[in-house]
Amino acid sequence: MLKLKAITKFSILLSSVILASVVVTSPLLAQVKPSPSNNQQKQLQGKQLDELLEQAKKDLDLDEYEQALSIYEYAASLDKENSKIFSGIGYVQALLGNYSEAADAFKKAIALEPDNSEFYYALGYILGNLGDNQQAASAYEQAISLAPENVGNHLGLGVVLLRDEQYDRAIDTYYRIISLDSSNQKAKNIFYTALLKQERYSEAIAFLQEEIVKDPQNAELQLKLAKAFLNQNNIEAGLQALQSAAKLDPNNEVIYFKIAKILQLQGDLEGALDFYQRAVKVKPNFIEAQANIGSILLAQENYLQAIITYRRLTKIIPENPTFHHNLGLALQERGRNEDALLAFKKARVLYKEQGQIAKEEELTLLIEEL
User: How does DSSP assign 49-69, residue by residue?
Assistant: First the structure.
């Protein structure tokens, strides 16, 4: 699934609107003379707002979000008709992860300035983060109606349509984006994902193969092609695509892991072990790959290497009972019964703590047999 990058996107699209000016650290700094005229009051208030907004901008630059929010809220108490202030509140609330409050703020901004497409875009993004994909889609559609040439509005719509499982509409959105930007990779990802979700694997494969012809050095395309083939149960073609991806991106541990999983399922333990080890070489703390190495070593009766592997894993994740359990099995096979007993007892305690009763009973039997 395609995801838009939150804070970065906000900064690009809204900074020119939201962070327009500055902030004073205290409202008491803006003192007025006795009995000023209405015009003088407006001028003084305008100056104070400028100072407030400038200070808010400085606080945001320093990642002082709570302080910036307080300033924006005080500014809103001075000027309840300023859409930029409410959009500023929404922006900061979104940075803080307070999406409900952010949505309320942008709705107020929109009520004051209903022809601002950026406000609708921000509201769509926030509603999407709240999981309200249908209302998010409506907000993006409003943004599109106001700024139909803005690709970002269409991309936002495409994302929430995918989340809402409206795949035909997502595909229609893809075509609109491509008409604006024929090489937009995010749009192509929307299209490919929608095809996969609809189980239109042959179409997805044909699309990806065309893209690979255009960009033969793109490992990500080969990965996507592999996924489509595997979903189609064409294991050999999927494996071939993964191997092509590995050649293009030899430092990608995920590719090696996927190849290893397929080989392991096919019973090629030597091949699987090789690719799991490649994955760990790229990413030494790849726990799942290390665990699968351990299980293969046990199956191959390579108990010495299995002991080394599981000792490493029990140090990394000491609360995992399976690692202690398998360590005990490898130690037992090497005739190191005292060490095996310690490992089995530790595994039994952890299984009990985690409510795995059947495993706890299994360990009890192993301990009694030692």
Answer: HHHHHHHHHHHHHTT-HHHHH
- For residue 178, how far is the Cα from the chain centroid? 24
Distance from C-alpha of 275 to C-alpha of 152, rounded to nearest angstrom: 39
State the CATH class of domain 114-196: mainly alpha
- At 23, phi and psi to the nearest 5? -140, 140
- DSSP-derived letter for residue 23 is B
Contacts of 242 (CB under 8 A, 6+ apart): 222, 223, 226, 255, 258, 259, 262
Q: Is the pTM of this model over 0.85?
A: no
**pLDDT of res. 48:** 81
97, burial (CB in 10 Å: exposed 0-12, middle 13-18, buried 19+): exposed
Cα–Cα distance between 228 and 201 in angstroms, integer?
A: 6
Q: What is the CATH number that goes with domain 1-29+39-112?
A: 1.25.40.10
CATH 1.25.40.10 in the chain: give the residue spans: 1-29+39-112, 114-196, 301-370
Measured CA distances, 88 to 17, 67, 97, 152, 332 (Å) = 8, 13, 14, 20, 65
CATH topology for the 301-370 domain: 1.25.40
218-239 pLDDT, tens digit per residue, is 999 999 999 999 999 999 999 9
Give, in order, the Cα–Cα distances in Å from 80 to each of 51, 202, 274, 292: 17, 56, 65, 61
CB 328 within 8 A of CB 322: no
Q: What are the residues facing 52 on neighbouring strands? A: 23
Q: Per-residue pLDDT tens for 159-182?
A: 999 999 999 999 999 999 999 999
